[in-house]
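Example record for the data management plan.
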Amino acid sequence: MKAIVMSEFGDPGVLVPTDVDLADPGPGWVTVEIRAAALNWHDVLVRRGRYASPLPHTPGADGAGVRTDTGEEVLILPSLFWGDRTDAPGAGFQILGDSTPGTYAQYVNVPEECLAPKPAGYSWEQAAALPLVGVTSFRALVTRAGLRAGESLLIIGAGGGVSTMALSLAGGIGAHTHVTGSSEEKLAGARAAGAAGGVLHTRDTWPEEVKELSPDGKGFDVVLDPVGLWDHSLRALRPGGRLVVLGANVAEHVTLDVRKYFFGQFSLLGTTMGGPEDFRGLMNLIAAGDVAPPPIAATYPLGDAAEAHRRLEAGGEYGKIVLVP
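Corresponding structural encoding:
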């Protein structure tokens, strides 16, 4: 089969189209013929060597396609070996495309428990773009933060995959949502997708500016921070609010004012990805029909994975970048 193989870690040029043999799936695993594979920032970190993937290696966490054993149209949950607990993954947890060959290929082997029917009305590109950001956003907003209809939500970083999906899920839940963004174009895209409004987070005063947009002007019930701006994000919360965090693309270290934190009665909730139970919850919410599919920014042939990665790293996109074999 055709696959994207990296024999070393580095820049996008290490992603090389290659002919490889497909391994037998093994007990409890199935083979999926990939119809589309979506890019995530996680794939960039894999390519750079952050997760010490075995080389040579095929990356890719997200994908949708057809089961070769039954002919069913499916999408793939990229959480492998989550374990029996719902509060946190087990010691064997990994993301598809870290150590296990991923979706940048014509075929991929995955555990059967990691498959779900392709949602009705979704294109292959939309289905491929859903699993990682979808299950991550669902776990963050619902499982961890307990977001409810009528509550206010602030999403940091409009235009990113998780942020865009979270905005859609929040609409399905019935939350009142605002965003921050790095450009007016991204704010406009978020408003078109259902956000009530937003502010640029390019000024240090943005937490106070966006706080004034909350329903009562006192801050948000929940702030979702997928980029690492915790110290600023806390300033946008109402007293007793919940900050749920899951990324560090902008900053890996923050300094918090401890007194303001405990006097504010804030909750700080860490999360990443999600397990089969979160996946079922996501699919049930989508089946209810109130969640818009992920927007697609661009589609590339599988062989152009390197160019797709360059576009992802350049930023500025509103929506997902997808590879099609």
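Summary line stored alongside the record: The two ends are 10 Å apart (CA to CA).
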